[in-house]
Amino acid sequence: MVTRRALLAAMAAGWARPVLGAGAPRIAAIDWAMAETAMALGHPPQALAELVAFRRVAPLPPPGSTADLGLRGAPNLEALSLSAPGLILSSSYYAFAEPQLARIAPVFSRALYVPGEPPLPKVTELLAELAAALGIPEAAAPVLASAEAEFAALAGRVQDRRPCLLLEIGDARHVRIFGHDSLYGGALEKLGLENPWAEGTRFAFYAPVPIERLAAFPEARLILIGEVPPQAQRALDRGALWNGLLPVRRGNVRRLPGINAFGGLPSALRFARELVAALETT
User: Could you tell me whether strands 164-171 and 174-178 are parallel, antiparallel, or unpaired per DSSP bridges?
Assistant: First the structure.
């Protein structure tokens, strides 16, 4: 929570303001995928919602001078106003707040995560759209070219083409499984790897899925994304159900750090890097 006292202290100290290119507005970001994209274009937001949590999963570190706007679903409008944005970056997730945001500055918003639709093409197209909105259309092409080259290089490093089941552990008996309409699923396809989860999802992932259903994927590698709750990890370590799974018995389990599941192209690239590095370990 951003308090009024903290806001006034920040104003007294003076927030550092990066020097932007000619015509590029100061920006504030409510949506994290938008924030990542702006950072990739070389114009990080001066203010960002849920800044502390963002830093934990961000593929690119925000500047130390970035102001915190509070919750994404209920941004602190005073903090937002004090950050003096010329443009506010949002998404369809926060359409309910757009009338309030628009009273402070113009809002740039896109529907990036839509159930049943792959998000990676959308966040890729966002590069050019946001670059144009920022008045720096020339910035998008080199970022996109670099991303495509890195995806190709990472795909070339993959030796074992077995399917990868992408999941998060919720508790000792349930997981969330990420489908083809997830950012992770799109990055997996860029690497030339198969996601064996063919069922639909409710919003990028399907949950809760009982752990026993993982037995239907004996040849897949289990890719665990993010931290496993300590209590769940202890239960898994001694649980017959988990340890009886063929991929677990064969050592075909890989762990990745927490990655923004609803991020932009930078998060898709980070997932690809982390996955390839994990697959290269024995």
Answer: antiparallel
